[in-house]
Design brief:
The longest helix is centred in the middle third of the chain and has 29 residues. The protein starts with a strand and ends with a helix. Helices cover about 50% and strands about 15% of the residues. It has a single domain, classed as 3-Layer(aba) Sandwich (Rossmann fold). The strands form 2 sheets. It has an 8-stranded mixed beta sheet with strand order 1-4-3-2-5-6-7-10, sandwiched between helices. The protein has a two-stranded parallel sheet with strand order 8-9. The chain is α/β, with parallel strands linked by helices. The protein contains 10 helices and 10 strands.
């Protein structure tokens, strides 16, 4: 783990984004930079973050602090906190975005891989939030976006066994946390996108499958991120923020269907999709 500070003395607020090297995380960096936020980028791929930092320095004139870290390491959140303190950085905007999928049946994945997955998707989200939230409370201002998924709001299909479960946890965690912060000046949202154009499916090895889906099911990362940033603002605050009409209709439909019916639909759809 290391860090690179572009400027010793900078003005303006700071945002920390995990999973900053690609996809939704990279787009969060771009849009937050356009709003004047200096950036703490956290991910495993340092070269990509360095390139993004250089781009945003030229485009928006913001500083970047790059922390190369693997959030599957239980020590990573504390080490990140230590580096922030050393650099004198107070985070105003936290985006817990890092994530991935394990597209196999539950016993088809080694437990060590499941344990790493839970560490990244659940434990690190809570750990980083626990470490950075007190400073936001003391300053009376802060924003936290936990990137969840529509998968956490609908019945979970077979395969990706822990994915929907982890996202459901993040949603409920965000929901409770947001209500705890009502008098602190800190706003919390769970951003729940559906299918989004990014590298997620390439990493998961499911690109050939999802490419068969209708374009109407997909959103661009810039749309998702813009929706999320708007949703966490005081004048538009949505604790559970679902971008896209199609995604909202899916969530609404599943909410009103009998549970067994909804489970059958998601299960059959997933199996049919995989057979195709």
């Amino acid at each position: 783990m290391n860090q690179a500070i572009k400027n010793d003395k900078v003005s303006g607020p700071w945002a920390l984004v995990t999973g900053a090297s690609a996809g939704i995380g990279e787009e969060f960096c771009r849009q937050l930079a356009s709003r004047g936020y200096n950036l703490v980028m956290v991910a495993r791929r340092e070269e990509r973050m360095q390139a993004l930092a250089s781009e945003l320095d030229k485009a928006a004139g913001v500083a970047s602090n790059i922390i190369t870290a693997n959030l599957a390491d239980r020590a990573a959140p504390e080490a990140i906190e230590d580096q922030l303190k050393t650099a004198g950085i107070e985070v105003e905007f936290l985006v817990n975005n890092a994530g991935y999928g394990l597209p196999k049946y539950f016993t088809g994945v080694d437990w060590s891989d499941h344990a790493d997955f839970i560490q990244v998707m659940v434990t690190a989200v809570c750990d980083l939030t626990w470490r950075l939230l007190p400073g936001m409370q003391e300053r009376g201002k802060g924003f936290i976006i936990n990137v969840a998924s529509v998968a956490g709001l609908v019945p979970s299909p077979p395969s990706h066994t822990l994915y929907g479960a982890s996202k459901a946890f993040v949603i409920r965690f965000s929901e409770s946390l947001a209500q705890e912060q009502q008098s602190t000046g800190v706003f919390v949202s769970a951003l729940c996108p559906g299918f989004t154009y990014s590298e997620f499916h390439d990493v998961a090895g499911t690109r050939s499958l999802v490419s068969k889906m209708s374009p109407s099911m997909w959103m661009n990362a810039d749309e998702v991120v813009a929706f999320g940033i708007r949703a966490v603002q005081p004048d538009h605050h949505e604790i559970i923020a679902v971008p896209g009409r199609v995604n909202r209709n899916i969530v609404r439909l599943m909410r009103y269907l009998p549970v067994k019916t909804a489970q059958k639909i998601t299960g059959k759809s997933a199996n049919k999709f995989r057979k195709q």
